[in-house]
């Protein structure tokens, strides 16, 4: 009797653990624009699993409409001929009375008709299912797909064109240790394509809204919604191009909720903000091209770091909405071909005396006003910037320039065509040149502005880095 | 005859793509042949009123979304055209020979709050477009 009770308890315990099981964080997903349409395929494979990755093909390896299960993790299809290579692939149940539709990890192989899933999928006898095959847009399951992702998973997009069929808005979070990554590639995963070789996500009026700890990498995303892409806190955008082409005022290409890193990416919003965060947050923007927007970047109250960015043809290059913004703005190029009504940096939202600003090594050229902020008394340091072609470098007495500021022609190679390589006037004129306490020969040569001269010639382009 | 086949072989592969398209009747998917020039492209905000090569075309996976409801994008001289999985939001689609399969055809309009709202046929706002 005792044994029976123990066995019964064990059974209940096992059933409970089965019910609670979930897909692995090691599952890697694949999107291809040549795959079966409407998000029906399995589309994923668990890294390191014993089976064969069938997500790297257009069509499902197995598909049928006789999926059967009885409130357990056992899944049966009498018309299929499964092999042990199925283990680690994802099975997608798309329909079936009594079935819980969704994506399931195949965790075990029993025989040609029987496999084990990561969790119970319902009680049914005629479920339509797909195993393997990459995912492709269309239908009504795009949002569902994003909703079921798990911290640590990676979604790869092979170069191609993906016109989404619905708004995507997920509350799924990654974690500090397990980010959720959406990453584009051209031929081989990890090849970090640039320019037109990145996959295109064409959203139209649909937004892409992600939660915490998401990474966007190597993607070209366009849309017209009030915010094309919004990520909440602790996210990363790297080597992406995000564009809002709407003619409606105040639209945003990319927005975030706080603590965000942007690098090597391109942003524009025809009638609004390239990057926007009204929230108090830390924002770091490095090596980006921000252009053709009403406002290039608007940030909130907290710490902002801008280095080696190009702000090209924005009515206002950089602004803040906060009363106590703090910013380090180093080695950026602010360029405008129109002086009327344009500003490179506008921090007028700041309350006098609260703003903290470090402004070094920037080129600010062609604006109506180079810098507009609260009146004097503000905590700022400005030096080694080059101010030229502006109607007013500084609005009124908002700031006093440092003793090493210049007013030279930066000698851009072809600013009208976004070539901001600098001429000899900007050569090795930036701070610092020497490092106190370091060896006497430890002398740095830094040009003003974002684009550094290559001398004598050559070097590598270092388009993307692979740590993320 | 030989010449015709040869010409077809020359022309067809250059301008056609294909995709497996699952339906309720055939969940395993049917092969759809689509026009390469206009498929899987971004035509957001653009008008193709002057395009003369759209008659009879099957267009798959392109975005023609417009910002104003009932915007004319395609010439009404086109008698037959098929859109599959295209974003046709705010596009005027009023010809009987214009077939849509799996397309987005919602109308929306930007309102005073700066957001896009789905609107009814009288352009009255019903609900926000990008909120669940």
Strand content of chain B: 25-35%
The 3D shape of chain A can be described as: elongated
Strand order of the largest sheet of chain B: 3-4-5
Order of helices and strands of chain B: HEEEEEEEE
Strand content of chain A: 35-45%
Largest interface (CB < 8 Å) = A-B, 48 and 35 residues
Oligomer: heterodimer
Widest sheet, order of strands of chain A: 2-1-9-12-15-18-21-24-27-30-33-36
Helix share of residues of chain A?
under 10%
Main attributes?
heterodimer, A: 468 residues, mainly beta, Pectate Lyase C-like, 2 domains, 2 helices, 38 strands, elongated, B: 132 residues, alpha/beta, 3-stranded antiparallel sheet, 1 helix, 8 strands, 11% helix, 26% strand, globular, disordered N terminus
Q: How would you summarize this macromolecular structure in one to three sentences?
A:
The complex is a heterodimer of chains A (468) and B (132). Chain A has helices spanning 2-20, 142-147, and strands at residues 27-31, 44-46, 62-70, 74-76, 90-95, 102-111, 114-117, 123-131, 154-158, 161-163, 168-169, 180-185, 200-202, 208-210, 214-217, 220-223, 227-233, 236-238, 241-244, 252-258, 260-263, 266-269, 273-276, 283-286, 289-291, 295-299, 303-307, 310-312, 316-320, 326-330, 333-335, 343-346, 356-360, 363-365, 369-372, 379-383, 386-388, 392-394.
């Amino acid at each position: 009797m005792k044994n029976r009770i123990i066995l019964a308890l064990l059974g209940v315990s096992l059933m409970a653990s089965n019910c609670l099981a979930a897909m692995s964080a090691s599952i890697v997903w694949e999107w291809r624009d040549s795959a079966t349409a409407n998000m029906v395929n399995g589309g994923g494979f668990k890294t390191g699993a014993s089976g064969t990755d069938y997500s790297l093909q257009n069509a499902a390896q197995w598909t049928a409409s006789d999926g059967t299960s009885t409130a357990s993790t056992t899944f049966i299809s009498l018309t299929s001929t499964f092999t042990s290579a199925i283990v680690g692939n994802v099975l997608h149940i798309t329909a079936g009375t009594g079935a819980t539709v969704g994506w399931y990890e195949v965790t075990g192989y029993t025989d040609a008709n029987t496999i084990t899933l990561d969790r119970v999928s319902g009680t049914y006898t005629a479920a339509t299912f797909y195993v393997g095959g990459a995912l492709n847009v269309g239908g009504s399951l795009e949002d569902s797909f994003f909703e079921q992702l798990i911290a640590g998973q990676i979604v790869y997009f092979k170069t191609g064109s993906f016109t989404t069929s619905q708004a995507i808005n997920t509350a799924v979070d990654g974690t500090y240790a397990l980010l959720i990554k959406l990453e584009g590639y051209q031929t081989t995963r990890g090849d970090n394509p640039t320019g037109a070789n990145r996959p295109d996500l064409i959203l139209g009026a649909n937004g892409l809204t992600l939660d915490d700890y998401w990474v966007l990498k190597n993607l070209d995303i366009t849309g017209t919604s009030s915010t094309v892409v919004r990520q909440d806190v602790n996210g990363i955008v790297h080597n992406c191009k995000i564009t809002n082409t709407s003619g409606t005022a105040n639209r945003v290409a990319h927005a975030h909720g706080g603590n965000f890193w942007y690098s090597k990416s391109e942003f524009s919003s025809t009638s609004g903000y390239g990057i926007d965060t009204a929230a108090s947050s830390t924002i770091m923007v490095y090596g980006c091209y921000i252009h053709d927007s009403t406002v290039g970047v608007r940030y909130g109250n907290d710490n902002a770091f801008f280095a080696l960015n190009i702000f090209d043809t924005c009515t206002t290059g950089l602004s803040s909405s906060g009363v106590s913004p703090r910013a380090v703005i180093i080695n950026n190029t602010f360029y405008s071909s129109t002086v009327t009504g344009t500003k490179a940096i506008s921090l007028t939202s700041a309350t006098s005396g609260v703003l903290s600003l470090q402004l070094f090594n920037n080129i600010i050229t062609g604006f109506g006003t180079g810098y507009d902020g609260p009146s004097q008394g503000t905590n700022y340091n400005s030096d080694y910037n080059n101010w030229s072609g502006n109607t007013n470098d500084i609005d009124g007495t908002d700031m006093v320039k440092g003793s090493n500021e210049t007013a030279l022609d930066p000698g851009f190679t072809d600013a009208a065509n976004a070539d901001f390589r600098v001429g000899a006037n900007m050569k090795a004129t930036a701070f610092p040149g020497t490092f106190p306490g370091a060896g006497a020969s430890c002398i740095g040569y830094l040009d003003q502005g974002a684009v550094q001269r290559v001398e004598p010639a050559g070097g590598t382009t270092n388009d993307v880095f692979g740590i993320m | 005859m030989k010449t015709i086949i040869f010409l077809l072989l020359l022309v067809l592969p250059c301008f056609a793509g294909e995709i497996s398209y699952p339906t309720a009747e055939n969940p395993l998917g049917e092969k759809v042949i689509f026009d390469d020039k206009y498929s899987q492209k971004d035509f957001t905000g653009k008008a193709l009123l002057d395009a003369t090569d759209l008659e009879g075309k099957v267009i798959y996976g392109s975005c023609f979304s417009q910002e104003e409801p009932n915007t004319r994008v395609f010439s009404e001289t086109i008698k037959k055209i098929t859109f599959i999985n295209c974003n046709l939001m705010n596009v005027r689609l009023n010809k009987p020979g214009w077939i849509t399969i799996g397309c987005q055809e919602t109308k929306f309009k930007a309102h005073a709050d700066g957001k896009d709202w789905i609107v009814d046929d009288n352009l009255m706002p019903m609900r926000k477009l990008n909120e669940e």
